[in-house]
Fold:
Amino acid sequence: MKTYKVGVVGLGWAAGAHLRTFVALPNYEPVAVMSRRELDPKELEQEYGVKLKVYNDYDKFLEDPDVEIVSICTPHPYHPEQTIKAANAGKHIAVEKPIALNFEDAKRMLEAVEKNKVLTSVGFWVRLVSITKAMKSIIDKGLIGDIYYAECDYYHGIGPWYAQFAWNIKKDMGGSSLLTAGCHSLDIMLYLVDEKVEEVFSYSTRNPHEVYDPYEYDTTSVNLLKFKKKGLLGKVASVTDCMQPYIFNMNILGSHGSLNNEKVYSKKIEGLMDWSTLDVIRVDSGDVAHHAYNDQYIHFAECLDKGKETVNNLKAAFETHRVIFAADKSAKTGKPVSLSEFK
Structure:
């Protein structure tokens, strides 16, 4: 496999985790960082164990011929323009979720990526975790039959104790409960079900505890999905203000069996009398230090070698975001919203 030279944009909590992953993997060589802050290359080398060029100008950073991949780990509103510029510069792109806070920006990002034929990896790393791979394989093999209902939920208290709280509370930075975090659960539902959404109906609310008062948007939403496939429904709860440990729930019901996180039951498996437990890694933490970046970037390197799209590419992420924008509009208007409004 080839070794790919990476430049990281931003150097906060998430970027540090990305950079450590690139340092640890043999298929990557971090060569530069781009930050608004003045950074000391010697201090960076001491902390990360590699020599890094430091840029404070994004355009000059993109002009560096050593940078083959741009890893964008800045706050949400910066993702669109940085992605578009990187695509226009011919760089392959890794970008954190959400890709954008509005539909038009997401659309422009996709157009730039497709026009320049660059490969992408969006921070929907849950698609690469072993529990998801196992569930996807079971579904594709038909072991639970035809899916008619799916439920994927995100529970995570993102309060003052969380690194991105200071800016995440703002509407023009965090966006919504779904955009800032619950998108992981919505994305994994769409990936597992593998069907197009026709309509969304959503309600939103918020925890009345004073610690969540600074949020400028509702921090809990319940989103009901009607798929184009007849008889298929879904529900996503995005709860970013709970007072409880982190929970990532995946529940898929089919005509001949069900998947409930690491448990499977199937009438197609003879002799199976109760739930059977899969030997898999669950998604059980909201800490970026525990995110499956290793799996994400091993997969990205394999796809770069073959010149093919990742399972978490920007086009797939765009489809997830279309549903998010429809859901957020529904919660605001109190009416169901058709995905045809977001073409």
About this structure: The domain at 4-125+297-312 is CATH 3.40.50.720 (Rossmann fold). The chain has two domains: 4-125+297-312, 126-288+318-341.
